[in-house]
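Postdoc handover notes: sequence design on the structure in folder B. Input tokens:
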């Protein structure tokens, strides 16, 4: 009888021990799975965070056309060379095309130590550019240079511009044009190639430097120096003008 009871006790002990191991193994497995899931979630969060940072680094926000002011243009850094397609001559550069996204463009004086002397019709038909400041080594604004640049509001000429070609600002939204001292000719001598503001800004002020000796403009309120060619032109063509 004692021997039988002893055997039964051993069987009971082994059963309890076996059940306990099974419970422990199950718990550990659960913990292992849970740990793995937690690690997977953390890794996923790390990847997302890293991706977001990468995306944010390349995401540049710009002001809308309505928000951009002349002050924004005047304080803006030069546009980087990679935002242009260039004609690189031996000692000078001409800008062929603007491929950047910034609606404010500042044409640099030099790129890679070479003077930027022209920009062809870089902005003609552009649908996004709002403001342009021309570099100090550019000598000419070509005919229809900004034609159909629909959002264009502000243009500032560099120090070396001598001529502005006919219809340079046709079909733009021109609000402010700053001419340089040293400018000699504005527009061409036929109506379709005159320089004029858009209809929604007819009568806008245009300050004409004393250096100008030929001009073909209409629709502006000319701001002129007493005795200058611009004053004479305004009188002869019955244009609105103000003497400084």
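Designed sequence:
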């Amino acid at each position: 009888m004692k021997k039988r009871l002893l055997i039964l006790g051993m069987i009971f002990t082994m059963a309890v021990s076996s059940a306990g191991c099974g419970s422990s193994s199950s718990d550990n497995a659960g913990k292992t799975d849970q740990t793995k899931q937690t690690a997977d979630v953390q890794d996923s969060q790390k990847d997302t965070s890293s991706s977001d940072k990468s995306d944010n680094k390349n995401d540049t926000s710009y002001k809308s056309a309505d928000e951009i002011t002349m002050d924004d243009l005047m304080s803006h850094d030069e546009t980087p060379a990679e935002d242009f397609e260039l004609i690189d001559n031996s000692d000078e550069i001409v800008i062929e095309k603007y491929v950047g996204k910034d609606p404010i463009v500042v044409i640099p004086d030099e790129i890679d130590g070479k003077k930027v002397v022209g920009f062809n019709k870089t902005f003609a038909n552009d649908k996004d550019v709002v403001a342009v400041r021309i570099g100090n080594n550019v000598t000419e604004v070509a005919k229809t240079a900004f034609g159909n640049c629909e959002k264009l509001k502000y243009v500032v000429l560099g120090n070396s511009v001598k001529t502005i070609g006919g219809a340079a600002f046709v079909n733009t939204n021109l609000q402010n044009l700053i001419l340089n001292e040293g400018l000699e000719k504005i527009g061409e001598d036929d109506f379709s190639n005159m320089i004029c503001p858009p209809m929604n800004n007819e009568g806008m002020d245009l300050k004409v430097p004393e250096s100008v000796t030929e001009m073909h403009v209409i629709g502006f309120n000319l701001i002129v120096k007493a005795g200058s060619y611009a004053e004479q032109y305004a009188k002869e063509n019955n244009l609105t003008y103000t003497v400084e």
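Context for whoever picks this up: The mean pLDDT is 83. Don't rerun without checking with the PI first.
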